[in-house]
Design a protein that fits this description.
Helices cover 46% and strands 13% of the residues. By secondary structure, it is an alpha+beta fold. The strands form 5 sheets. The protein has a 4-stranded antiparallel β-sheet, with no helix packed on it. The chain has a 3-stranded antiparallel β-sheet with strand order 3-2-12, with helices on both faces. A 3-stranded antiparallel β-sheet has the order 5-4-9. The longest helix is centred in the last third of the chain and has 39 residues.
């Protein structure tokens, strides 16, 4: 007897349940939309339900043909990984959710001006309180017995920017006061990872690491998977990130071929041409040998380059070999360098490009590395760490913590922070900020035991604005500072 398939009926019941929970009457009338939506999800689950989804882009190839042999890919990945892993990770207690939302909104802008940075830091100072010591900070400082925090994050970021995927897994005690709180973190090599899916309702069932004959399966909730967006939805490929090396496979392959050509050209250059008698007649064998020996004696070796050879007879030269310069290989390598830098959003001035390298250009390129590449990537990673790691601590310990990367001490960004400092001081002088509020914005601790640190003051000897009552109605009173005197 054939078992009846109740999937459509079940799907309709689920849709009706969703619709009944909707408060908007107009949305309730669109129950058919939700049935169709769930039907499409069911089609999706039919294709990948209960399967292992393999990464068809071949992460190992991105490593072997990209990072391992191409110096430009190696440089770009290492530059981003090393720069980003040096960020200072700060933990904050969220006191005002609206101020925190405002801070995130401002910091998520593509082009952050000094004025925007000022507003963001004011919102952070208002809504967040810095936490100096916490087990989350200890864990990020030393994730496991074999790695420090910098090396750990460099490895995670390196895998992501090479293969498109970075994986870390956490281990927590099953019992005791730290039950469920990760005490060790480990990187899972992305080229050996597989994703097992449970269908549309559970796209990621678990992660499987298979390496050297050993297999480790970790629940989805115990793995942080950070990846680049992948628009390929065929056979569940969207579950894996798209590797920059895969996206730029053509310039990477061309660059690899150019390096191979140069290598073989230098190794197997052979004769560059032939010297012969031409139309005047061929040289005899003993004459040719004598000429060859004489040439090597007088012109062989790099110390005898560019000398002029004088012959007693008419000789003709025929070239049949070409140098890498003649083949434009070296010049084309510069174009490949630029294309690969574009993949990683790294300016050519940072990639040993002598044509456009000036001090100002390099300085601006270093700044853009942070503002356009590293800081946005660090914010993305912070979002993932807050979603996966910090949230676990918040749920168990009933806290409201958030992790934020800081680049305040980076030398190339100091011009912006000096301008920020001036803006803060101007607001203090104009009684918009107290000195303690200014200290918080500038990343310093508040001072509790100094008078008037929380007062809003005016320039003349920092008079407490509360003591100015009665003067506000007078339009003739003006307090200014000029050479230490009051006008």
């Amino acid at each position: 007897m054939t078992k009846k398939n109740n999937t459509p009926t079940l799907r309709n019941k689920i849709a009706d349940k969703i619709v009944r929970k909707l408060s908007n009457r107009d949305l309730q009338n669109n129950s058919q939309f939700y049935r169709e939506l769930l039907g499409n999800m069911n089609k999706f689950s039919t294709g990948i339900f209960g399967k292992t989804i393999f990464d068809i882009t071949n992460s190992q190839n991105s490593i072997d043909k990209g990072y391992m042999i191409n110096p430009y890919v190696y440089f770009c990945v290492n530059l981003i990984a090393s720069t980003m892993s040096n960020a200072e990770w700060e933990l904050y207690d969220v006191k005002d959710k609206e101020s925190f939302k405002e801070y995130k909104r401002l910091m998520n802008k593509n082009d952050i001006s000094v004025r925007t940075l000022f507003k963001a830091e004011k919102a952070k100072a208002k809504g967040l309180e810095k936490v100096e010591q916490h087990s989350i900070l200890d864990l990020l400082s030393q994730p496991n017995p074999n790695q420090g925090g910098t090396e750990f994050l460099r490895e995670l970021i390196g895998f992501k920017y090479t293969t498109g995927n970075g994986y870390m897994t956490g281990y927590a005690p099953d019992t005791g006061i730290n039950k469920g709180l990760y005490k060790q973190l480990f990187i899972m090599p992305s080229q050996f990872m597989k994703i097992n899916t449970g269908g549309w309702s559970q796209p990621i069932l678990n992660y499987e690491l298979e390496m050297d004959g050993n297999k480790i399966i970790r629940p989805a909730e115990d793995v942080l998977h950070t990846k680049f967006w992948n628009p390929n939805y065929s056979n569940g490929q969207f579950l894996y990130g798209l590797s920059p090396v895969e996206a730029g496979s053509r310039p990477v392959e061309i660059s690899n071929s150019a390096f191979e050509t140069r290598k073989y050209s230098y190794e197997n250059m052979g004769a560059y041409g032939v010297l012969h008698g031409g139309a005047a007649g061929s040289l005899k064998q003993d004459e040719a040998k004598l000429l060859d020996d004489s040439y090597l004696e007088k012109f062989g070796g790099n110390k005898k380059a560019n000398r002029i050879m004088i012959a007693a007879a008419f000789l003709q030269w025929t070239q049949f070999g070409m140098s890498p310069v003649d083949l434009d290989i070296i010049k084309s390598n510069g174009l490949d360098k630029s294309d690969i830098g574009l993949l990683y959003n790294i300016r050519i001035e940072l990639m040993n490009n002598t044509e456009s390298t000036t001090y100002d250009n390099v300085l601006q390129a270093k700044k853009s590395l942070y503002t356009e590449t590293v800081i946005p990537a660090a914010r993305d990673l912070a979002d993932e760490l807050n979603r996966w790691l910090v949230k676990r601590y918040n749920d168990i310990q009933k806290t409201n913590l958030v992790l934020i990367p800081s680049f305040r001490d980076i030398p190339v960004l100091q011009d912006d922070y000096e301008k920020l400092h001036k803006m803060v001081l101007d607001d203090v002088k104009n009684a918009i900020l107290s000195r303690n509020e200014a200290r918080k914005i500038l990343g310093r601790d508040e001072v509790a035991d100094v008078p008037n640190m929380n007062a809003y003051t005016l320039p003349r000897n920092y008079i407490d604005i509360k003591n100015m009552e009665g003067l506000a109605d007078s339009t003739e009173v003006e307090v200014v500072v000029e050479e230490g005197k009051e006008k």
